[in-house]
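Suppose you are handed a protein chain with no further information: no name, no annotation, nothing but its sequence. What can you learn? This example shows the usual starting point.
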Amino acid sequence: MPRGPTLRTRFRFAVALPVLLAACASKPPPLPRDPPTLAPGMKGGLAWVQLDQVDRGPTWVVERESSWKEGLVAAGPRNGPPTRTFTRLPDGRWRSGVIDVEVSADRIIGPEVNVNFTRVNGGLLLAGMWLGRNVDLLIDGRGASAQGVPFTREPDGAYVSKEVPGWRVYLVGEAARLDAPSWPELPISILCGGWGVR
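A reasonable first move is to predict its three-dimensional structure. Written in structure tokens, the prediction is:
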């Protein structure tokens, strides 16, 4: 004659059920299908998207961005004032506060700035020093390596890394054209945003 669940089995189920329900309730939202949009008037840039807990549950939000338009690169939080800007001067130099940098065909130089720009197959390499900090970033259509941290490019265009969980880096607008990168706007945007800078 079949027997029902034992008292011990019922107790285990009663303890496990709330844990399973809580795990299901905290399931992350589906991954974005499209890259985030640029701020109004911007031509291209980078967006750092993070999984954030809000009243309605977890959602993907643009935490910070670094983008450009004609003669201006600005970086900072999406919903706040920029923390760094560079403006192109009439003589071709770029200025941020009291810092001026000069741009040649493959290099950005200035006080505590010496960054080499190299085109690689379908991407670019930035290496050197940016405002006294080391720069090491290789990026192409398949992935990236920032200070030795590997990133994989996903179908929606996000660069993700197991070593940086919960973050997605997007190249948006003209920044996504790695075969013909906007010079020097894309490298300055990357550097101002701090990707590959340590």
